[in-house]
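User: Could you write out the 3D structure of this protein bound to Fe4 H S5? I've included everything you need below.
Assistant: Certainly. Input first, then the structure.
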Amino acid sequence: MKCRRCREPAVIELRRHNAGFCRECFLHHTREQVRKAVDDFDMLAPGDRVLVAVSGGKDSLALWDILLDLGYAVDGLYLGLGIGEYSGESGGYARAFATRRNARLIEIDIPVEFGFDIPTGAKAAKRAPCSACGLSKRHLFNQAAVEGGYDVVATGHNLDDEAAVLFGNTLRWNVDFLSRQRPVLPAESGFVKKVKPLVRLGEREMAAYCVLTGIDYIVEECPMAVGNKHLGYKEALNAIEEHSPGAKAAFYFEFLDKAAHRFEPAAVGDAEVELRPCASCGAPTSGDVCAFCKLVVRATS
Ligand code: Q46
Ligand code: ZN
C-alpha cells in the first residue's frame, strides 16, 4: 500500500479515510485533524493560554504534543489519583514528556492535598470509583485553570471515547447528558471553557502517533475501568466499524450536526439552575457546598 499524499510506502492504513499514509504524512494528517477540529468548533483563539488535562496515556500526551507543535501556549496538569501502581507509573510518563518538550507540568496529588485516594475515598463516600474520580477531575481541573489564569481546559477525549459515551447516553435516552455532549463547552459563571480537540481522531490513530513520534505512555488502562460499561460500548462500536468503516464518525458527527441542538436545555424545557459560590471552596455550585467539598468530607471522615 502507498501513502495517499506522497506515494511512498505506507506505514498505516486508515480504513475510515480509505487511505494509507507514510510516517511523515500520517503525522501531518494527525495535526491537520486537530487543526480542523479546533477551527470547525472554535476551540482555541490565538494567544489563548491552554491547560491540558494529562493522564500519562496516549491521548493526552499526543494532544499536548500536537498543540505545542501547532504553536499554542500549553501547560499540562496531572492529577495524582492514588490508584496504586497505576498512578505512580502514569505520573512518571507525564513528567518524562514535560521534560522532553521542556513544557510546564502542574501536579496535584489528591491523597497528599486532600487526604484520600480515589478507591478508598469513593468507598467511604458510597460512590462508584469512576464517579468520585470524574467529579474530582472536573472540579480540580476547573479550579486549577481559574487560579492559573488559563482561558481553556483541553482534554484528550478521542472519537472512540465520544462515540462510546454518545452510544451509552442514546441507549438510555439520557437527555440531560446528551445536551452537554459537545466538543466545546463555553465558559460560564466560574467555569472555564472546555474543549476536546481529538474528536476527529480514533484510538488507533493516537496510539500510532505516539509510537511514530517516540512518546512513551502508560499502556495499561486504569484498573478501575476494567469491566465498565464504557469499554463494552467501545467494543460494540468497534464491531460495527469493522463491517462499516466510518460508522463511528458518522454516528458522532451526524449527531452534532442534526440532533445535538434538540437536546439543548431550552429545547427540553429545563430551567436554568442558579449557581452560587461553594461556602467551602468558592467553586460555582447549585447548593451551599459543592459536590467535591462534600466528597472530601465524606471520604476523610
Ligand atoms: S481514571 Fe478515574 Fe478513569 Fe480510573 S477511576 Fe475511573 S474515571 S477509569 S478515565
Ligand atoms: Zn467546594
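Residues 118, 129-130, 133-134, 222, 224-225 surround Fe4 H S5 (ligand 1) (CB under 6 Å).
User: Perfect, thank you.
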